[in-house]
Specification:
about 130 residues, mainly beta, Jelly Rolls, 2 domains, four-stranded antiparallel sheet, 10 strands
């Protein structure tokens, strides 16, 4: 039998079985690193502020998760989130929401397979999008 701190072997004792596993699983603490904790879910994301008005604007051309939207100014009308890798007139929104100044809409990590474009309904439309790549 090997060292119980580094061995994958099963050790038998008088009070039962003791299993020592050398590999780490998601969410376990990595004592060998100050920066890599192996967390599966980590609440971090990119924040992109958009003063878009009524112009459809590309946030990312890669698949992503959208965590939320923050309204930055006195927005009126809807904010459309579009599952698209490029802007194009007539794209159908995947999510349509109304977020006012200082408001927040939690999208729980909604998945956008193609990319993310955002469009506003009013001329003075200003939002921050919280997103992360898949």
């Amino acid at each position: 039998m090997g060292d119980p701190k580094t061995s994958d072997e099963v050790q038998w004792g008088s009070k039962g079985v003791s299993v020592h596993q050398a590999t780490r699983h998601g969410g376990e603490r990595n004592t060998d690193s100050e920066t890599n904790s192996y967390d599966v879910v980590r609440q971090e994301c990119n924040v992109t502020r958009l003063d878009i008005g009524t112009t459809e604007t590309l946030v990312t051309g890669a698949p992503c998760h959208v965590l939320g939207i923050i309204g930055n100014d006195a927005n009126s009308g809807y904010t459309d989130l579009i599952d698209a890798a490029a802007t194009a007139s007539g794209n159908t929104p995947k999510v349509r929401t109304n977020v006012a100044d200082g408001g927040y809409v939690d999208l729980k990590g909604a998945r956008f397979e193609l990319g993310l474009s955002v469009d506003g309904e009013a001329a003075a439309h200003d939002v921050s999008i919280l997103w992360r790549p898949i």
